[in-house]
Amino acid sequence: MMAGEPREEKCRVLVVDDDDELRSALSDMLSEYGFDVVGLAADGQAAVESASALRPHVILMDVRMPRMDGIDATRLIRERLPKARVIALSAYEDRALAAAARTAGADDYVTKGTAPELLCDLIEELVARGRRSSTTHLRGRKPQSRSS
Known about the structure:
Layout: E1 7-10, E2 12-16, H1 20-32, E3 36-41, H2 44-54, E4 58-62, H3 70-80, E5 85-90, H4 95-104, E6 108-111, H5 116-130, E7 136-139
Parallel strand pairs: 1-7, 2-3, 2-4, 4-5, 5-6
Helix pairs in contact: 2-3, 3-4
């Protein structure tokens, strides 16, 4: 790399969901697409603590969880880490819930059934939009084919 060239850095993602299987599946999928999954959290309180410690670029945040929901967690995270991007995840296509998530600071709201390619494209778009003035490029890559 020559001086002045942008350096590439993997996009750091925190995955937050109270469903163990979904949290693990999202983590595996994001890793396959070249994202750096820096942490996993099962509730909003753990998400706030993890985000503060790990400083991810993007947080995938379930909206309905025990201890602290994703709406309140998003609000606290955005107060502490204003540059972090938050994508609210829900099993429901609910306009009121989406509006509450956006009011709390979420950049977008998607249902849990969203195609992996679309979710990855959204993550990359949000990071690019938030980092346009930076010389760091954050990205994920298409998954590599697995050997059988």
